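> example.struct
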């Protein structure tokens, strides 16, 4: 146990983010003592499960831990391991429980080691109960709403012997200006909103991430300015449903207007966004994309199902023909745009006819790629209580047929740019062949071409000589900038 009285002689600030900076200072002091005790620097590892939102949250966790003075490592054999969890499908939970057993074996060999769990899975009461009962070796558990409190909670976990658990049901608070450790110097996610109000009947997100809250546009624009000054060339605007951005703000603003303002920033080369719900995708948004070349030619438009009957049961608020009309509208305004999607197979009550409707959309839209998911019964969602849960073997058969077509079409469509010269933002040296670098076109296609690490973070004109299924082998064809 460490005596905290010395460090506690200043009043604790009540407002954020000052309060968290205070606790970062306090945690640094405690860490110094622990480092002396250990006789070596203490390390941390943050493992991310799930979506881009979690990936961005993990960058925030890393920023705070680095500010405290922990040393970052990629290995879970660290002195502090944080799992930032996902719960959108059951197998995400199973994976975490399995890996906790492994962490426990590491902890038995390192008495300095602390284990923390956060993210969506922690917002489920049954999970927290199970951890309290059977995973006593976990030191700290927190949720999605109080992630900004990492420093404060860590001080408790570092000084108390008991497992520290703090989960909030909801929050209206958005804490700005905490440290962030970006994975890539040249590109970054930017949260524009948190939570979701859509309550698709299969989805647990609204329960674990809470109601929609938009960030103030000024805060977002300032963050983008700061990122650009810091060398960022591409931002990805993040929200569960970016199309409803701005609702509930005092000065209402649409997502299209926000996108227009961000794209007009000097020094920023590319803007992406994720995810768009088809039900409220506006003509204004399509117009803004069409007239602004900095906005990436990629639309991720989750379909989920092609059957009107299932779309209704899923509470999606569009029909197959609404969706196809929307695709038509996007393609006529922005020809050659890359379309990707999410599809669920085996939603309760799905018949062969329903499934064929989904296949029909896949044939008509011809996606460049798609995430296909087997329906997972999430306790607490309305669909979990629906009758007609589908037999596993039937689902597997449909899933395989869908995946096969998605891949065939994806291969054919990806090849459509062969022979063209396009700009690639270079991300890294190729892992398998160090004479190549790897980057992405604005439509998100992957390209490999001859080059070295000096090209990382630069935009390079590349001839797309050969399509190899889902990626291109290209050749530099102009100066990098
Ligand atoms: N089962 C299977 N897939 C799901 N998704 C969300 N909830 C479930 C579920 N219960 C998928 C949806 C969503 C993506 C992020 O995850 O396709 O768009
Ligand atoms: Fe889940 Fe639907 Fe919200 Fe997406 S829009 S997070 S699928 S409830």
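> example.seq
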């Amino acid at each position: 146990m460490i005596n905290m009285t010395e460090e506690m002689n200043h009043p604790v600030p009540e407002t954020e983010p000052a309060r968290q900076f205070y606790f970062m200072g306090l945690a640094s002091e405690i860490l110094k003592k622990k480092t002396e005790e250990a006789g070596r620097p203490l390390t941390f590892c943050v493992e991310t499960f799930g979506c881009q939102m979690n990936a961005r949250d993990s960058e925030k966790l890393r920023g705070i831990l680095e500010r405290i003075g922990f040393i970052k490592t990629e290995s879970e054999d660290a002195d502090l391991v944080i799992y930032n969890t996902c719960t959108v499908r059951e197998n995400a939970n199973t994976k975490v429980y399995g890996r906790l057993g492994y962490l426990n074996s590491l902890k038995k060999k390192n008495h300095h080691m602390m284990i923390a769990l956060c993210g969506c899975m922690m917002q489920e009461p049954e999970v927290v109960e199970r951890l309290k009962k059977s995973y006593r070796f976990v030191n700290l558990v927190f949720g999605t709403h109080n992630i900004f409190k990492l420093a404060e909670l860590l001080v408790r976990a570092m000084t108390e012997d008991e497992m520290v658990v703090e989960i909030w049901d909801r929050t209206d608070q958005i804490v700005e200006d905490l440290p962030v450790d970006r994975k890539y110097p040249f590109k970054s996610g930017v949260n524009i909103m948190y939570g979701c109000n859509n309550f698709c009947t299969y989805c647990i997100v609204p329960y674990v991430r809470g109601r929609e809250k938009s960030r103030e546009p000024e805060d977002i624009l300032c963050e983008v300015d700061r990122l650009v000054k810091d060398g960022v060339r591409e931002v990805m605007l993040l929200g569960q449903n970016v199309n409803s951005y701005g609702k509930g703000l005092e000065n209402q603003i649409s997502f299209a207007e926000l996108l227009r303002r961000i794209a007009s920033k000097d020094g920023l080369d590319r803007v992406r966004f994720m995810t768009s719900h088809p039900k409220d995708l506006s003509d204004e948004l399509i117009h803004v994309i069409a007239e602004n070349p900095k906005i990436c030619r990629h639309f991720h438009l989750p379909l989920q199902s092609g059957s009107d009957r299932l779309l209704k049961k899923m509470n999606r608020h569009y029909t197959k023909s609404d969706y196809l009309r929307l695709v038509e509208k996007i393609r006529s305004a922005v020809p050659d745009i890359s379309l990707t999607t999410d599809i669920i197979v085996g939603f309760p009550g799905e018949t062969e006819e329903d499934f064929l409707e989904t296949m029909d959309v896949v044939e008509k839209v011809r996606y460049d790629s798609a995430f296909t998911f087997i329906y997972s019964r999430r306790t607490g969602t309305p669909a979990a209580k629906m009758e007609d849960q589908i037999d596993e073997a039937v689902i597997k058969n449909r899933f395989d047929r869908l995946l096969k077509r998605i891949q065939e079409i994806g291969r054919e469509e990806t090849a459509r740019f062969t022979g063209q010269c396009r700009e690639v933002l270079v991300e890294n040296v190729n892992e398998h062949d160090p004479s190549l670098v790897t980057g992405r076109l604005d439509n998100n296609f992957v390209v490999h071409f001859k080059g070295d690490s000096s090209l990382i973070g630069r935009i390079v004109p590349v001839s797309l000589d050969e399509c190899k299924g889902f990626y291109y082998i290209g050749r530099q064809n102009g100066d990098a900038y």
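> remarks
Residues 196, 198-200, 203, 205-206, 240-241, 277 surround iron/sulfur cluster (ligand 2) (CB under 6 Å).
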